[in-house]
Design goal:
With 153 residues, the protein is an alpha+beta fold. 28% of the residues lie in helices and 35% in strands. It has four helices and seven strands. Keywords: Acyltransferase, Cytoplasm, Transferase.
């Protein structure tokens, strides 16, 4: 994939109309423990703490991120980039966007990442996230997760 200029990309709030396209990216990214369609609809329509964003290139959704804002804490629930657009800085761009969004009301942000997901951990570390511990059997397949934190202030 050729590198896209940031002017070609748009980040906006995710809507219910985006769920099927986001779900396609979710399935290709997380085959062992992907979210269900119902989970995405629930997050958008019923979870008052949830905020979801998509990155678009023209009419295509190429990345998404969800987070919860609870009092002064932000938690990234899911984030992924379409496999055809990985390693082009889009994940880093989206992560910085949601960190900035959350910093308006929150002081810290956390997330969980699979232990073997070196690519994602590198992106998080580059954004300032630090190791915070292990959540045993966090994923549906029994794999542990590394917890990471960053200060937003």
């Amino acid at each position: 994939m050729e590198k896209q200029s940031n002017q070609d990309l748009k980040i906006r709030k995710m809507t219910s109309d985006d769920v099927l396209k986001v779900y396609d990216i979710e399935k290709q990214s997380f085959s062992n423990s992907s979210w269900s369609l119902e989970a995405f609809y629930h997050e958008l329509e019923k979870n008052e703490f949830a905020h979801y964003f998509v990155v678009t290139l023209g009419e295509d959704i190429i990345a998404y991120c969800g987070l919860w804002l609870v009092i002064d804490q932000a938690q990234i629930t899911t984030i992924s980039v379409n496999k055809n657009y990985r390693n082009s800085g889009i994940g880093q761009l989206l992560l910085k966007y949601v960190m900035n969004f959350a910093s308006e009301t929150c002081t810290t942000m956390s997330l969980e990442v699979r232990l073997e997901n070196d690519t994602a951990r590198h992106i998080y570390e580059k954004a300032g996230f630090k190791y915070g511990g292990i959540r045993k059997n966090y994923y549906g397949d029994g794999e542990d997760a590394k917890v990471m934190w960053v200060s937003l202030k």
